[in-house]
Specification:
- The complex is a heterodimer of chains A (219) and B (206).
- Chain A is mainly α.
- In chain A, 63% of the residues lie in helices and 4% in strands.
- Chain A has one domain.
- In chain A, strands 1-2 form a two-stranded antiparallel sheet.
- The longest helix of chain A has 31 residues.
- The radius of gyration of chain A is 18 Å and the shape is globular.
- By secondary structure, chain B is an all-alpha fold.
- Chain B has one domain.
- Chain B is 73% helix and 0% strand.
- Chain B contains nine helices and no strands.
- Chain B is globular, with a radius of gyration of 18 Å.
- The relative contact order of chain B is 0.21.
- The chains are: A mainly alpha (219), B mainly alpha (206).
Chain lengths: 219, 206
């Protein structure tokens, strides 16, 4: 059990995929203009990631090493298709907002990266912990970014049609936060904040050069 | 004349107004991963142009001749596109290594990396599947339109990547506060670079 929570917590702080490992950036910056979109993106990634790593991990003894990448891709693509069709059916507004980012979960480096780096070598329960932890770490960062951008950029937070929070009338929202430069700049400061926090608490820094381009290059 | 104008607008819209890296955030991993030096950026830009054109043509044919007529497109497009792209890139790499070693030496190492780049899948999906593309141009591209759109996307990728690499080479020697050194500063630089593309928004009604 202790091992399980240890693996789970790693995804939240030390090996957070976004602020520490710098993988899976594209959907983060693109869909964080709205908390709603960011939240459902997080949910979709948690679902796909956990299910895929559990399946990969339970099949790891039967999948030969030479064909593992195509097998992983087919597994991930099947779960993404489930998300794609069910979101289209039950949450049509969110589906339209997320658009091309739903099929692009397949190429999200976090999922293939965790299947390759962790699930292929570990047992099912630990892989599930890793998937949940990494997914939660991803969701926390993306929802925080969405909160900052929507609250300060549009002056209010609307979630599934309900207004949760809003600034008074005199607040003139700087539109730039909702545009693309805002995403890059706010995320840059978030990375710096995570770095500062880790330095202060004396957490050991992990290698930050684990880009998907490098990680998946050795196949 | 009419057609020429249409294709020119499509090219400009895909390359600059809807730049794939800086305004739509697709394919950011190589953008931050290989932009450390000018040489790798040039190689990556060339590789993306090559793979994107090839992959989009093949997936366009697969969609219009196979998936759409059979009526299975909505269920199978994600797995089939990604498998077609991955297989295609593997075969191209083998062929290049055998037939044109010089080109393989300059592009070779980038080819496998590009397969898992979301820019390729996104462009392939957008050039065949209506409804995802924000530009106010008719959906359901013909083959020529899909090709021009893809080349435009690849050119936009190259422009953004190479200009960012040039900025980052200067940033190496700039005095940056310790906590912002490295990736945080790279993000802020990218944000400032993308301000240039805000000005292009809405140009020609694209």
């Amino acid at each position: 059990m202790r091992e399980w929570t240890g693996v789970f917590r790693r995804g939240l702080s030390l090996e957070n995929p976004l602020t520490m490992l710098m993988i899976g950036l594209c959907p983060t910056l693109a869909v964080s203009t709205k908390v709603e979109g960011a939240f459902f993106m997080g949910v979709a990634v948690i679902f796909v990631l956990t299910m895929s790593v559990v399946l990969v991990s339970s099949l790891r003894l039967y999948v030969p090493e030479q064909v593992r990448i195509p097998v992983f891709i087919v597994i991930v693509a099947s779960f993404v298709t489930i998300v794609d069709l069910s979101m289209k059916a039950f949450l049509p507004d969110v589906y339209i907002f997320l658009g091309v980012w739903i099929p692009l979960i397949v190429t999200n480096c976090i999922i293939l990266g965790r299947a390759e780096a962790f699930a292929y070598h570990n047992k099912v329960s630990l892989s599930a912990a890793d998937g949940l932890g990494m997914g939660a770490g991803f969701s926390i960062v993306i929802v925080t970014l969405g909160l900052i951008r929507e609250l300060f950029g549009s002056g209010e937070i609307v979630f599934l049609g309900a207004r949760l929070l809003s600034f008074p009338e005199w607040y003139r929202a700087p539109n730039v936060l909702l545009l693309f430069p805002g995403a890059f700049i706010v995320f840059g400061f978030m990375v710096a904040a995570a770095k500062w926090y880790n330095l202060r608490t004396g957490t050991r820094m992990v290698q930050t050069s684990a880009h998907c381009t490098i990680e998946e290059g050795g196949r | 004349m009419e057609t020429l104008q249409h294709f020119a607008l499509l090219l400009v819209g895909a390359a600059l107004v809807n730049n794939i890296l800086l305004t739509r955030f697709i394919g950011l991993c190589p953008f931050f991963g290989v932009s450390n030096s000018m040489d790798t950026s040039l190689g990556m830009a060339g590789g993306v142009l090559f793979v994107l054109t090839l992959a989009s043509s093949v997936t366009w044919v697969a969609w219009n001749l196979l998936l759409d007529p059979l009526g299975v497109g909505n269920f199978l497009y994600i797995p089939s596109f990604i498998l077609v792209i991955a297989a295609l890139v593997q075969f191209v790499e083998m062929y290049l290594r055998k037939a044109i070693p010089a080109l393989h030496r300059s592009l070779g190492i980038f080819l496998p990396l590009i397969t898992t780049n979301c820019a390729v899948l996104a462009t392939a999906v957008e050039s065949v599947r209506p409804g995802f593309f924000k530009m106010g141009i008719e959906y359901g591209f013909g083959f020529g339109e899909a090709l021009v759109y893809t080349i435009g996307v690849a050119l936009g990728f190259g422009i953004a990547l190479i200009s960012f690499a040039a900025l980052r080479e200067r940033l190496e020697v700039a005095p940056v506060p310790e906590i912002m050194r490295g990736t945080p500063m790279a993000f802020i630089t990218a944000g400032l670079l993308s301000f240039g593309y805000v000005g292009l928004g809405g140009l020609f009604g694209l």
